[in-house]
Write a structure and sequence with these properties.
Length: 348
């Protein structure tokens, strides 16, 4: 959610040993330090040949992860998403991202589907016994092509973009069900983008926006830092010999955003006010349900290996089916039932 320890720095010794790319989804950050340290120890102690077994242990570990409920609410009412396209966005790219969001509660695509992926998120409940809703819809959209707040946003500036959309009446204030998503176009710089974050979620402040509303920001990294934020569709140049995967919808930046958006939405729904589901003792640096599974897209994933995913007839990698015949590659999330990272393309 908020940048913290660098995932890259913590993982680098493991990577150098294992000579494989590091997993990064939405944020370059670590899980709890002891969790990461244990992960590094297991990989280092066993040598490079143990990558898979250590990953399996990571994937299946319950003893190292202390995900806890902190008494706050989850998004249990049907979720109304409000999209703010900030900067110029081609219609085709908006359609890919919108189709992903609409797939989250669409039962028709064949398994493994995006709706099945969301069903793991819907396993989280709050102290009233209400689960995260399985119903996710796009309620309204605003397209701010002209960059009214400029081409470089601070973190608080993202809230001002939402404030503008509400004040102008482009989007309604939806207290019961609303979640606001700010999606910045390729040329927009955002504070910490590409360095400490590829996306984040939080809630708006009454002093800036007039209301407390859950929101997330995700940036298109295609131009600025695909090797940081659109992994595994781009890999860092120093990782010679590691091939990038082909993006299922043909755009590295947009397909990379899909997984980051999924990551943020899963966390926003299970921890909207940052007082519900997270691991770690520090609420300013919570480790949430998607943070625990960064870089894991299939069985065996972790420690720099995506895990087993599928390829379509054009060689494009995916692990979820969505609406309109689309395919997506989305990281797994932590399941409170099996106490491991889980996705509908699991082999076991
Ligand atoms: C609600 O959450 C509980 C606890 O994780 C789970 O057992 C139950 O299956 C969930 N219900 C739905 C409809 O997902």
């Amino acid at each position: 959610m908020i940048s913290k320890l660098s995932f890259l720095l913590l993982l680098l010794p493991t990577l150098l040993l294992a000579a494989s790319p590091f997993p990064r989804g939405s944020k370059i950050k670590a899980a709890t330090a002891d969790f990461q340290a244990a992960r590094m120890r297991s990989a280092q102690g066993a040598g490079s040949g143990a990558l898979l077994s250590s990953s399996k242990r990571y994937e299946g570990s319950s003893d190292l992860v202390h995900l806890r409920y902190h008494m706050g609410p989850v998004l249990s009412s049907p979720i109304n998403l409000y999209l703010i396209w900030y900067g110029p966005w081609p219609a085709a790219h908006r359609a890919t991202l919108r189709d992903f969001l609409l797939s989250l509660s669409d039962p028709s695509p064949p398994p493994p589907s995006a709706a099945q992926w969301w069903s793991t998120v819907a396993l989280y409940s709050d102290q009233t016994g209400a689960n995260v809703s399985r119903r996710v819809s796009v309620a309204a959209e605003a397209h701010l092509r002209g960059l009214p707040r400029g081409a470089s946003l601070t973190r608080l500036g993202v809230q001002l973009v939402i404030a503008d959309a509400l004040a102008s009446g482009s989007l309604p204030v939806d207290h019961g069900r609303g979640a606001y998503l700010v999606l910045t176009s390729p040329g927009v710089a955002v504070q910490d983008f590409c360095r400490a974050a590829c996306g984040f979620h939080y809630f708006t402040f009454p002093s800036l926006v007039g209301h407390t509303l859950p929101y997330a920001w995700v940036g298109h990294s295609g131009v600025q830092c695909p090797d940081v934020c659109a992994y595994p569709f781009a890999v860092p140049t120093y990782m010679t010999g590691v091939g990038a995967m082909r993006p299922p919808n043909g755009d590295v930046g947009v397909d990379g955003m899909v997984s980051v958006l999924a990551h943020e939405l899963a966390e926003l729904s299970t921890n909207p006010l940052v007082n519900a589901w997270y691991a770690g003792e520090d609420p300013t640096a919570p480790t949430e349900i998607a943070d625990l599974c960064e870089g894991v897209y299939g069985t065996g994933g972790g420690g720099g290996y995506t895990g087993q995913v599928s390829k379509d007839e054009l060689g494009r990698s995916y692990n979820l089916n969505g609406r309109n015949g689309r395919k997506f590659l989305v990281q797994w999330v932590w399941s409170p039932i099996v106490k491991a990272c889980r996705g509908p393309n699991a082999m076991d």
